[in-house]
């Protein structure tokens, strides 16, 4: 028997300890109660912070006060139904249910397994995860279970495919081959912060593009290595009860179904393109004519629903798995049946996250942390590395990248400008820290869904399993990314269009 490395033993310990914790739903409830107690203590001692952008005094709100208890009592239901991942998952699962129930997903996986070079599968899944951010956060819903399914079908451990997909999707926030919906949001916040120093400065959405593109290549290579050299060997052989897909040759009828499903998809994509590409496109912003903040992207979940529903129905009709409307509804219903555990988990996760947000604890921690770093006197590379660590740390408490940057940008963008750094470079550094800890924080909105996916392959899989599985990605991505941005600084390459390292 091969002796385990110290790192592997540490991961095993994290998994064991983590999984001895109560059920994730119970754990979220306990964390909500802890937040309530902390809010009472912080309020009693007068913990507060001054918002760097508005000058407003941010005080911790006591959840155990009369007002706090009234808020809790009246917001249990709104917290649950307004939790963003809940609606997105439920809507998309309607389409996925038809695509899966008709057999389209199964035959697509078989086709991929039979046709793709086996040595490139891991890299392909990570790349797909990086690209998934073009469609908002759909990668969490679709790609992670698909990655597990593909690995399982190949005789590899499904949780390794799960981990590769999860890493690719989360790292995509700081790396991408194309511009996504988050880029203009961050650029707008950076512009507002930069104008504190230079009222004429304007930051464009592609200011990080060069660094993001290079980062995407790095994430693909390093993520593949971590999956195949660390994560998969540690997992060993899968011994669970979940059966893999039978990898049989594609029949002529299935090929016909795939062909027509593909044609249907192309027609649908062309129709959607017609609503957004022309200057007078129906789903462009009716006021500005813009694309990135248009109805097309704000309602992207509907487009994704149809993207799975249309080819799924076409395929099912051709191969005979869908004969009438009752079959369609049956497939939709079946997909919803598997979400019972997720819905219960989301109920408690939503309470925890909304209680935390209401208390202002995360906001105060973020502001005080940012101000501490700004006052310790670091300069140059040590300052940048400390900034990366702070961003990664704050990401454990605040899941939203735009919310964190709204707090951090007014502090760090002007501070770094006074030190000679361009706001685009500061924003790029922030995105590194914001990406690496997504995979290990329960504050990430889709964490409850991730746990549910993991339990499909072993009901004992819990928060400890996820964290121990993903820590190698967090640690190694952080180290490699830190080295990468350090070299970038030394060479002086722009991080994007109109995004030099240093101010002119």
How is this structure best described in words?
The protein is mostly helical and 504 residues long. It has one domain. The protein is 68% helix and 1% strand. The chain is built from 21 helices and two strands. A two-stranded antiparallel sheet has the order 1-2. A hairpin with a 6-residue loop joins strand 1 and strand 2. The longest helix is centred in the last third of the chain and has 29 residues. The radius of gyration is 23 Å and the shape is globular. The model has no long low-confidence stretch (mean pLDDT 83).
How are the secondary structure elements laid out?
Blueprint: H1 6-19, H2 24-44, E1 48-50, E2 57-59, H3 66-81, H4 84-101, H5 104-115, H6 121-131, H7 138-153, H8 158-171, H9 182-194, H10 209-235, H11 252-274, H12 295-298, H13 300-319, H14 325-337, H15 340-359, H16 361-375, H17 380-395, H18 401-418, H19 423-436, H20 447-455, H21 463-491
Antiparallel strand pairs: 1-2
Helix pairs in contact: 1-21, 2-15, 3-15, 4-13, 4-14, 5-7, 6-7, 6-8, 6-10, 7-8, 8-10, 8-21, 9-18, 10-21, 11-13, 15-20, 16-17, 16-18, 17-19, 17-21, 18-19, 19-21
């Amino acid at each position: 028997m091969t002796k385990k490395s110290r790192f592997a033993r540490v991961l095993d310990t994290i998994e064991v300890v983590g999984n001895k914790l109560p059920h994730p739903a119970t754990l979220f409830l306990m964390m909500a109660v802890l937040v309530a107690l902390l809010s009472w203590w912080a309020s009693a001692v007068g913990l507060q912070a001054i918002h760097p952008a508005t000058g407003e005094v941010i005080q911790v709100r006591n959840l155990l006060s009369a007002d706090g208890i009234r808020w809790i009592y009246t917001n249990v239901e709104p917290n649950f139904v307004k939790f963003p991942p809940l609606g997105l998952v439920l809507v998309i699962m309607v389409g996925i249910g038809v695509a899966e129930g008709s057999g389209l997903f199964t035959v697509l996986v078989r086709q991929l397994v039979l046709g793709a070079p086996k040595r490139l599968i891991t890299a392909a899944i990570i790349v797909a995860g990086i690209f998934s951010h073009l469609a908002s956060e759909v990668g969490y819903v679709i790609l992670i279970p698909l990655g597990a399914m593909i690995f399982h079908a190949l005789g590899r451990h499904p949780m390794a495919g799960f981990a590769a997909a999860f890493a690719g999707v989360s790292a995509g926030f700081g790396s991408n081959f194309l511009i996504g919906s988050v880029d203009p949001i961050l650029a707008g916040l950076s512009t507002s912060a930069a104008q504190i120093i230079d009222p004429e400065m304007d930051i464009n959405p592609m200011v990080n593009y060069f660094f993001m593109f290079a980062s995407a290549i790095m994430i693909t290579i390093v993520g593949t290595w971590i999956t195949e050299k660390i994560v998969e060997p540690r997992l060993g052989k899968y011994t669970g009860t979940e059966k893999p897909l039978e990898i049989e040759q594609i029949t002529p009828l299935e090929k016909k179904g795939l062909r027509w499903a593909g044609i249907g998809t192309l027609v649908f994509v062309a129709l959607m393109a017609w609503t957004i590409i022309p200057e007078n496109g129906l789903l462009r912003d009716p006021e500005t004519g813009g694309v990135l903040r248009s109805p097309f992207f704000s309602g992207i979940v509907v487009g994704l629903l149809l993207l799975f529903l249309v080819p799924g129905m076409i395929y099912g009709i051709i191969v005979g798995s869908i004969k009438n409307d009752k079959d369609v509804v049956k497939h939709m219903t079946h997909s919803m049946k598997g979400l019972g555990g997720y819905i219960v988990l989301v109920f408690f996760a939503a309470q925890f996250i909304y209680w935390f947000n209401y208390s202002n604890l995360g906001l105060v921690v973020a502001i005080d942390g940012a101000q501490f770093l700004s006052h310790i006197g670091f300069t140059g590379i040590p300052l940048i590395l400390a900034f990366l660590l702070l961003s990664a740390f704050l990401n454990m408490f605040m899941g939203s990248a735009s919310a964190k940057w709204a707090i951090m940008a007014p502090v760090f963008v002007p501070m770094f400008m006074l030190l000679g750094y361009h706001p685009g470079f500061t924003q790029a550094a922030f995105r590194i820290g914001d990406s690496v800890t997504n995979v290990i924080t329960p504050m990430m909105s889709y964490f409850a869904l991730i746990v549910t996916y993991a339990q499909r392959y072993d009901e004992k899989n819990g928060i400890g399993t996820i964290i121990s599985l993903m820590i190698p990605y967090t640690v190694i991505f952080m180290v490699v990314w830190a080295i990468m941005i350090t070299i970038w600084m030394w060479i002086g390459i722009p991080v994007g269009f109109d995004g030099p390292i240093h101010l002119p």
